[in-house]
């Protein structure tokens, strides 16, 4: 147990935290919009639930990025020694998934909210309303991918 | 890949056959009736009346449904279950049904209930106002001012009571403060003073926390008044219950009401369609579109109904849009869902459902990528298809999920993923199975993300090039051979030679020299040809050069396919995290096994749901953004045949 290990844990924390915050924020934005629509039309609950859940994926991507680092340093299986430099590298590697998750989570929430307004007026266009917020999610996926590739490339 | 051929027709017949013919057309559902130019301007009044009736019935249905205590499931909120009924039955029920009377009854109950609710709130407020004064032994109307004295009622903060006394003592010495009820925070008090001091007393009370309260002037003491109000409240509640019971009784008519709604809706559709026809005194014309292959049958059916009918084929004008009907073999028809979500194809376009089907199924499989999840998804979708009567879109969706589930199972086998666990997790006594599964597994994406990444990018290259092939075919079919050769052909050649260059470069093969020559010649050819629409030579050259910039766009498109890797890994890793957590709670004394099983079940169901959602959404996106952009426009008009419309029922 040394500073390298602590730095990599900081990386895990950053990935999980930022992704989680982004998703919580985004889901809340979508949830507020859905609540408004449901007061008028409670029947739409099922469809809107889906829309509210859409910005929720960033939290998982953050967790995944964090988990990938945990596996790399063997946190759950006893642990390997991590040099301070590798630790720092793992910390940096956590940034793409964390930051993209934070920002895209919030903005996907906004896109979802407008999708919810679309469903309120034209329920038959639910498919389109689901696809458009997913465009925002792309960048969180890319962030996750970058983190995974960086982590798997780092030599401990 | 089929957009069916459609034909514009006029049906001409005598006025006296109109009803019969429309009934037949509604029944056989083959003609998309258009408004004719000569049709009379629609009279909004009749339509308004029908809409009003519909709204009234619907609100009664909603009111009664709320009372009938049947909870709607999540599935029903997506796909309301319609009642299956025969047309005869529907008509028989509606004929003997006094809908107006029922609606009036329902409305009366609704209004009465609203009034009762208001009254209840009022009574509750009055009781709340009086209850602190319960101990006051005087009838309330005796709290009036007399000739010389004045009475003030109100509340004050208990800790300010001494201040109150002091404040009053300053302005007068003829006063009396009675504490009716003393609580920890607030006391309710009665102040008696001389009438001539009243103004001064009020003023000095203003500086304290005293709040005057206005009590009703009745001949009863507060306790008696409260009792009276409570009796009223009880009566009120009893009547409310009575009304509700009556409404529940009326809810027995719910299905009749629904039938009625659909009857009125049918009348409305009928009425609207009639507005689209052109009438003369003795004849009428229906203008509409029909699938060419249905024409013979329609002719036969109409001739059988009445010989005094003629069908004319009308040549569609050049700028007229044919309505579009898609038809694909059964296995491919679910993929029409993706096409329609983007937009129905134009009449002259391909239906992209079949070309995208292979890619969609494969991408979905890679994203979900687990044998267990694939199996579960397939079974759940089958259950929904069997158990519920779904609208056409729902049926397509679940069929799509079944196909996606099957490809996920295959991908799961190849990548060694079984509910998030790898084949290595299989216990030793099943070693033959283990070895078998290990030999099937060709890659572990979590250990070799790079190999998987390259594979997904390669899939992207294949689909993008395929998009160019589609565009080329489309151009050839339209006879635009120059565009086919110089745009699509050259780009195909250039992009494939670039890929060739990258592959040979990475493998440091001796062919890389050839590849670079090919790419350069491709680029040169593009520079020479892409500016061919421009006027001057310099413009031609510059716009040709600029067109090479599109390569970066295609690069971006290709990179977009890396999401397949990320999503596949995310479902696999979340699955394995659930397994690890379950392994941890197993150690909990006593409840360990129970907790483990609960965690496994809930965890995997949860992962299945979110992973299926992402798999669907992202596979769809790859089709729409990366694939369709190469050749597909959409924006056609969907063929909507004249047929019976119903909201609550399904005609057998």
What average pLDDT do the residues of chain A reach? 91
Q: C-alpha Rg of chain B, in Å?
A: 39 Å
| C-alpha end-to-end distance of chain B | 31 Å
Oligomer: heterodimer
Work out the helix count of chain A: 6
Termini separation of chain A comes to 14 Å
Class per helix and strand makeup of chain B: alpha+beta
Structural class of chain A: mainly alpha
**Helix residue percentage of chain A:** over 70%
Helix content bin of chain B: 55-70%
Q: Give the CA-based shape of chain B.
A: extended
Largest sheet data of chain B: 5 strands, antiparallel
Order of helices and strands of chain A: HHHHHH
Strand percentage of chain B, roughly? 5-15%
**Beta-strand residue percentage of chain A:** under 5%
Radius of gyration of chain A: 18 Å
Tell me about the largest β-sheet of chain A.
Answer: none
Strand and helix layout:
The complex is a heterodimer of chains A (156) and B (652).
Chain A: H1 3-40, H2 45-53, H3 57-72, H4 84-93, H5 95-121, H6 126-153
Helix pairs in contact in A: 1-2, 1-3, 1-4, 1-5, 2-5, 3-5, 3-6, 5-6
Chain B: E1 6-14, H1 18-28, E2 31-34, H2 44-67, H3 74-78, E3 83-85, H4 87-95, H5 99-130, E4 149-157, H6 161-171, E5 175-182, E6 186-194, H7 198-206, E7 211-212, H8 222-250, H9 254-275, E8 278-279, E9 283-291, H10 295-305, E10 309-314, E11 323-324, H11 336-342, H12 353-368, H13 371-387, H14 392-415, H15 431-440, H16 449-477, H17 481-506, H18 512-529, H19 537-547, H20 550-560, H21 563-585, H22 592-631, E12 637-638, E13 649-651
Parallel strand pairs in B: 3-13, 11-12
Antiparallel strand pairs in B: 1-9, 1-10, 2-9, 4-6, 4-7, 5-6, 8-9
Helix pairs in contact in B: 2-5, 2-9, 4-9, 5-8, 6-7, 12-14, 12-21, 12-22, 13-14, 16-17, 16-20, 16-22, 17-18, 18-19, 21-22
